[in-house]
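Narrative summary of target 7.
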Amino acid sequence: MNDVIVSPHFLSTDIGSNVLRKGGNAVDAAIATNLIQGIVAPETCGIGGDLFAIVWDPEKNKPAFLDASGYAGTGVNPKKLMGLDEIPLNHPYSVTVPGAVAGWGELNKKYGSIPIEDILELGIQLCHSGFDVSEELYKSLKTHGDELGGDASAFSFYKNNLPYEIGEKIRRPQLGKTLELLQKKGLEYFYQDEIAKSISDSVSNTLTLKDLSNYKAEWKEPLSIDIFGYKAWTSQPPTQGYLTLTTLKAYEMMESGEFNLHQLIEMYRIFASDRDNILYDYKDKLEDFIGTDLRYIQEKIKLFNPKKSELYNFPKPHGGGTAYMNTVDKNGLGVSLIQSNFHGIGSRIGVGNYGFFLHNRGCGFNLDQHHPNYLKAGNKPLHTLSPTLWSRDDNLEFIIGTRGGRYQPQLLIQVILPYLLNLESFENIIKKPRWVIDYFGSNTHSKIKFEKISDKEINFLKKKGHEVTNENGYKNAYGPISIIYKDKTDNFKGVADIRVGTEKVFSSL
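Modeled conformation, tokenized:
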């Protein structure tokens, strides 16, 4: 076997690959890749956000799932948001406990082969030596300039209240010093003392010191379903990862035997229409979650109409910026890791002069007090993050994931299904135009945006009642999707998306 990394930024891949060259394993490389990604692309992720990881353990021939997402603080009072339909993106209530740093600690403790201090050193060096501004970072800084320009943690990004231009070198000494504190005092220091107090102060004590000091990342069982001869694995609720698996399983159960675009779109819409009703923090009652239950899937596919698009009305509950990266090493250890600040650079709430911003995952809560996903202290919000990992006959076969908020399962099913049907290689599939549905809740019409679509396909879908928009070109928001798969020689190959120019694959072959 061989070592492979795929990440959204060439520096993340390059520095992560150095960890592998120096004797680190796939988990060490994943932590390093994630650390660097948050430094060079804070518009996607960073230490102020959440993390999920699925780790394939070759000694156990099965994966473990790490939930390093955070809960709402004890200081939230939903009554103060009365009259609003949703939590504002930059409101203190949008900030839940950031779990990424605790997640690194758990990954390193359970699977790591090199000290976490050595990995942090790579980030410290980059913060102080600097890197060139990418197009995506520049656009994000420009968009949020009014909010970030005067923030102490944004000092590195602006000059005379204007963002540094594309290609200009910037340094992040504040973040570097924060990483030095974690290197010296341990990752738990992030949730204690001065850093924790600054986090709490920055959100008006919505997150208390006790909320932060009590936080733990948790190892859990991943969800799984058998699909087309593979076993698919994903994250537990409150993430929407199940939608990828449930949609593809439903497609298999339809037994069409061929690719049908109308059927795939409708399968997704059927289950996505019910997402906001059944997805919330189940805590220790995961058995109540019906999203991957075969009886639930069988019942829902009865709603499919092969002749036309339908409305799917599920009115009652039954109970963003992101970075995805994956790694595999020569010993068969594989990691599907996704980490996020949610909307772009997150809440735009900086933490003192520590050089980082807090995510706004709390916006995943709703403000309907009768719904189980209601904003409540100690609960975790609905999460759009959807990492997946696929095995067959107790062997790791491929790892795939993407950023894209609510788009994530939509994008993944389009890339995974043709591969499962043996229609095309991942290298060809990754180049195919994609579609997205912005609004898929209960009782919504099918309105689909395609990157590119032929007149023949447009007519086919319109005859079935879909409203179709042709974007006439690739869109960054429709990816990037990162793939690592096992080829016929039992070596792993990485496939990078063409939609983001900074994405890069490393392979030791």
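Residues 220-320+385-507 form a domain with the Glutamine Phosphoribosylpyrophosphate, subunit 1, domain 1 fold (CATH 3.60.20.40).
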